[in-house]
Amino acid sequence: MSLFGASSGFGQGGTSVFGNTTTDTHNPMKDVEVTSPPDDSISCLAFSPPTLPGNFLIGGSWANDVRCWEVQDNGQTVPKAQQMHTGPVLDACWSDDGSKVFTASCDKTAKMWDLNSNQAMQIAQHEGPIKSIHWIKAPNYSCIMTGSWDKTLKFWDTRSPNPMMTLQMPERCYCADVVYPMAVVATAERGLIVYQLENQPSEFRRIDSPLKHQHRCVAIFKDKQNKPTGFALGSIEGRVAIHYINPLNPNYIFLCIVTDTSLHQVNAISFHPVHGTLATVGSDGRFSFWDKDARTKLKTSEQLDQPITACCFNHNGNIFAYASSYDWSKVRVLKSLPNY
């Protein structure tokens, strides 16, 4: 796992604190390698909100853990703490004040991690693995939104063991994003549902997918008035769709990742918090920056020897973090067996 600092020098990471050292030494951009990465594939990354002084990065992994690092001004990282689930951690997010981290797992539970006390407690339960988790801060309520493979979207007051609301979905939740007052959920079978979160959450619109293959990631973008206005949707075939909810600009699709021999899946999309440009990462082992309004590519990284599975910007956009690990994109099925 590495940090790309747009305004700082590049350097190497440090030694292990969690009893683990990084084994991936291929670092063509000489980016800062995070000290003591997880033992297995990284599923999610998130930087702390601007209300918390400094920069803290959390990462969840298939090793069942979520870890927190402090990113210092010189770019070096200091491991701070970690918590465990009994299954892979698929998603994680921060509370708006930066005091808590919320985690979603294949063990069908979500937890709230109080960073001040370093204690974690279960706050949600589903009938299937929880794929997405988001903190919602509305004028009249605050809650956690969880999307699961049990085909439900649930909203939780962290003080109660029962959900405030449960919304049925036609299929399993594959990815989701929240920028108040909008939520977007992409499901299996290429489903897309937009929810409005004002007053209380409710379904706003179902959208026919602009992509022809399985959805992999989604990220909401804002207009110049800082209001959510649309989303970018990535798929397993290397394409990204830019979709406006009420289109003043035309929707379009662009081919994001391709090599000489095949397409590669887009694993994550993240929008720059200041400029509105977007980053995409995928199974080809590269990250790219794009200007969605000008429809141009701004930069593509050197190629790593593993896929890039997750990425995020910090709150002011001067640090970009990405995770390099296996993503199951090279699994193949033998369609016919030879005669033995």
Q: What order do the helices and strands come in, and which of them pair?
A:
Elements: E1 2-5, E2 32-33, E3 42-47, E4 55-61, E5 65-71, E6 77-84, E7 89-94, E8 100-105, E9 109-114, E10 119-125, E11 130-137, E12 142-148, E13 152-156, E14 165-168, E15 173-179, E16 182-187, E17 191-196, E18 202-206, E19 215-222, E20 228-235, E21 239-244, E22 252-255, E23 266-271, E24 278-282, E25 287-291, E26 296-300, E27 308-313, E28 319-324
Antiparallel strand pairs: 1-2, 1-28, 3-4, 4-5, 5-6, 7-8, 8-9, 9-10, 11-12, 12-13, 13-14, 15-16, 16-17, 17-18, 19-20, 20-21, 21-22, 23-24, 24-25, 25-26, 27-28
Summarize the structure in short.
This protein is mainly β and 340 residues long.
Structure notes:
Mean pLDDT is 89; it is low at 5-24. The protein folds into 2 domains: 31-170, YVTN repeat-like/Quinoprotein amine dehydrogenase (Methylamine Dehydrogenase, Chain H, 7 Propeller); 209-320, YVTN repeat-like/Quinoprotein amine dehydrogenase (Methylamine Dehydrogenase, Chain H). With 340 residues, the protein is mainly beta. 0% of the residues lie in helices and 49% in strands.
